Amino acid sequence: MTPACDNEKPSEAELAVGIPIGRHLAISLSALCITLALCGLVVANGSYLSSTININPESLLFGLWPFNWVYLRQLANSPYSNSDIKWFFTIVSCANAIWLVFVCWKVIFELFRRDIAFPPKKLPRICRAIVSFFIVGCIEFILSALVGLTGFSTQGISLLSISFSQSIVVDAAKILILRMFFLYVGVSFILEFGGLALRYWLARTFGFFLAGETSQGER
Fold first, then answer.
1. pLDDT in tens, 161-186
2. Which of 20, 50, 105, 197 would be a feasible disulfide site paired with 87, CB 3.0-4.6 Å?
3. pTM of this prediction?
4. Secondary structure of 123-168 in the HEC alphabet?
């Protein structure tokens, strides 16, 4: 395909697939923003939560965020008080629990979506877009996981790092707003566009999810 072909207006078949994908993605992005806002409420009510919920290395909520084990080893030699450390683990663990609820919703949302029906012919531009978003999700997830494994930085304060040189409130906020958010955005993209890639492959290989069979799902 020549570069000029990529500048052509989308065909009716591409619009029939692209518009539902865009609507579906908009719903997912809205859900991501709502989840992030709920995490903000967790921070705002951190003192109450830390006094009512017992988060320790044996608790389920603690183990659901695997990077807590990295933080636990590092915080053993930190300047923070025991109450600050308890507050920190409560905030991080409760926020992660909210994100896991989002992931469960996302899995169900993708499994039962009925808005996509691929036409019999190939859609190379749609295919490239799906693969690109999927790769972005994978890269975002891997980078976020690698950053999470580093835990607290000993190189001083920076925009993205968490450090003993700053308030533990700031550290928790950075984990929730930056590290945790971007990790679960990656998960969301993997689920959404990985599912689309699988549906496209099934349509091209076995004839599933073709427009003639599933177009009623768009109603």
1. 888 888 999 999 999 988 999 999 99
2. 50
3. 0.86
4. CHHHHHHHHHHHHHHHHHHHHHHHHHHHCCECCCCCCCCCECCCCH
